[in-house]
Please model this.
Amino acid sequence: MNFELTEDQAAILEAVREFARGELAPRAEETDAKGEFPWENVRKLAELDLMGIAVEEKYGGLGADFTTWTVVGEELSSACTTTGAVYGAHMLCVYPIMLFGTEEQKQKHLTPLARGEKIGAFGLTEPMAGSDAGSVRTRAVLDGDAYVLNGTKIFITNGGDAETYVIIANVDPEKGARGLTAFIVEKGTPGFAFGKNEKKMAYSSLSNRELIFTDCRVPRENVLGRERRGFRVAMETLGLGRIGMGIGAVGVARAALEYAVGYSKQRRQFGQPISSFQLIQAMLADMATEVDAARLLCLRAAWLKDQGRPFEKEAAMAKLYSSEMAMRTTTKAVQILGGYGYTKDYPVERYMREAKLFEIVEGTSEIQRLVIASHVLRQAAES
Amino acid sequence: MPLRIIEEKCTACGLCVRACPYDGIAVVDKLARFTEQCNVCGACVAACEFEAIAVEVTHTADVDPTAYSGVWALAEHADGALRKSTLELLGEGRRLADALGVPLSGALVGSGVEPLAQAMIAHGADTVYLVDDPLLASYRTGPYTDVLCGLINTHKPEIVLVSATPQGRDLAPRVAARLGAGLTADCTGLHINDDRLLVQTRPAFGGNLMAQIVCRTARPQIATVRPNVMKPAPRHDARTGQVHRTPVHLDERTVATKIIEVIREQGDGGANLADAQIVVSGGRGLGVPENFALIRELAHVLGGAVGASRATVDAGWIPAYHQVGQTGRTVQPKLYIAVGISGAVQHLVGMQSSETIIAINKDPHAPIFDVATYGVVGDLFEIVPKLIEHLKNRG
Amino acid sequence: MNIVVCIKQVPDTTEVRVDPETNALVREGVKSITNPFDENAIEAALQLREQHGGKVTVITMGPGQAESALRDAIAMGADEAILISDAAFRGSDTLATSYVLAQAVRKIGAFDLILCGKQAIDGDTAQVGPGLAERLGIPQVTFAIELSVENGKLRARRVLESGFEVVEVKPPALVTVVKQINEPRYPGMKGVLRARKAPIVRWDAAAIGTDPRFAGFDGSPTWVVRVFPPERRAKGERIQADAETAAKRLAEVIEGMHLSP
Model:
């Protein structure tokens, strides 16, 4: 069993780490406070070939594997959670096109996404369809050479700033999940508008907009995969997204841990640095162990995916554990900083607010538990 | 003779004659030949476009150090006066010359600089070797290297001191490479040891380590000396000495560097950093670039210059010529006030010779407090304005 | 434009410490990095190539480990990298180093420009660039903060003691650059992967024809006879008080110095 990254993976990680530390981290507070999409950071990611890590070279990508995509995700999230989130959400548009796109679709849509010339987003969630993905009500009706879309999506990350969207609509609502169909929709298509950008508990610079489809005509050739195969597109995409969310949670938890360690060595009470107190040490030990465990779960899931093996259960475990771990870890970080940790002068309260997101998006912890349990019970039934 | 004409390659084009400042080479019978005036300055070697002049480099081990005697200080001048750094070279040079029992000479190169020869003598030189020519009015690497090498080869000093200024650090390594001499950069300490060798002390590794260097046989021993560290020589107008003029013929066509424009530093309204007696420096602790106004105000009230840490210069808060530190400038004022500066080694190296250091920083563990004569742990945004008030009221 | 960039791999001197017992440098855990000023030189070369076309060759004299610095340069975009390495070069001071580099540059052949960082952050001498220019018989421009090619000539703005000067030289020439000349680019991932597989040319003493008397210890007139940590200043006074009292005390101290402005 080899726990090392390959040399290529390590070289990329090293290069991204330097960039993240030098360029993203020093401005992370500012990026968050601005309340604007981090165009400058994303442009830099594109320049460094980071927006298409797992995409084949012939489509403008780096041709690397998902493990590489995952370790890079941790670095970006740790340095600047907003940038990490944009990076992760972008992949949710890239990946389904990689898996299900026709050659024409890949040429047309995948290449600009992989090059970072366009940002991507994935539109599944609706006001009445959160965990219950089968309840998607955005309607798609075939009319000649196009499908006409009507409906609303909410909370869509990168919504409004992305140019390319993978949208899950329903051609046959009575069939529920079996009517779902995936479409590629470009910003600027008539009838495709943006609504409210959510004011959230954290991530004020992350766009989470409403997508509003009003008689929006989407050409037939933009169906991704096949008609009525949209549920599978969604599940595959969310499957990868779990790893992305997991490692994003690891990133923010690691940032909180590193900050708390540094602080505990500087802060003196009772004549000593607080890092010399056992109760603080216990917290730091738990935090470090958990961050490490979460990372390993994420990397293991990514590795399985790279091997072409089933990874749904492992990805769900990674997402479940990492997100809850991030909440625990960032909370402990605030605790270690005490009163100062509760103020906005220090980043840990932001990390804690940001960590909460990971327990909800891309399949809540509750959904992850159902997924894991169903695998566990099925495997038990088989043996 | 270390220079040799490769006869097969020589085309008798005369470029070497044009380049030679000393009438040391002439074309005779369709071949370039060296004359008695050649002092091996080396100008012809670079000028020849056919590589027809070979240099036979004397290996270090074959040099006879006893053939070299005397301590030289190379002058740097501006606006008709010797720079303070030159006075420091003369002060240090005097000490070394006395320790060796040899004369101290000045090397003075420029245009219309003859009066400065007297100034060098007044500051301690026994002899001044003067080369005065209109083409030497502004420093340029080529002619200054040729002239200085010619002087050194003719008069053979055992030690040559050059200021570690941009000019000195441009010139000295070129001269050293041409002569095969040993050069030590940016010296902060010099002394003669029992073997009559110059021991050169200088910082390395960003100031984390001091190194002592000697040059056993190669001559001359050349050292560039960090400005604002040594004591300047006092002036005694009654002193007398000799001025030795060497005529040169320089040809503008052979000078590789053309100076297009000279831009004088726009001061910040404050005194020039290099010579300032009082320096107030700001660091990252200021938070935002606008807060440099506090530093400027304090400097203004004290009549001092404004300095900056590398972090603030890198962040673009203040122009680079304010930077104090290993890769910036060294200052040696009577009073140095470090505001919001942590005191990384690289910064300390640039100011730790200041007579009195006051440090204001909110971090009690900041390394700046290790060198501060007076250290205040506190909020600079409260302390500095109050300090300014107090100074204004008393003054 | 044919550009040669000379780089050096150095310990990160912001991390280096001296062991107070042995007076030796504590190198453990200190990363080896490309000399920061040399990264500015590489960036300047890449920008000139982007504007004028041509080739960027990066060379370094060093031990085998220095290869990683060359790979970093290729990741940034350099076309070719050459490691000049031989046991015979060990112990070289700046004079011997410029000799070895000159031999290597002669083997490379024709070039328009040699770029160097202004100084290495371990030696801090700033001597190798000018020494190299002298040996190659080409003009030098030191401390360049701006560099451009205009009408076939190199134009540079140099940092002086108090101000700047703008100079022009005809190539081939050597230029040393200061930090403020540019922001070195981060290598893109395509560059990183390419660099991992790139062939690094290795030249030893025989390959570049160095005379052993002029390289290594033998070719170095200067010797380091002793190293020691810098002197510490005497302990100062810590003023522990509120802002008002502290400010008053400082004003007193300053007034007491009787400094004329």
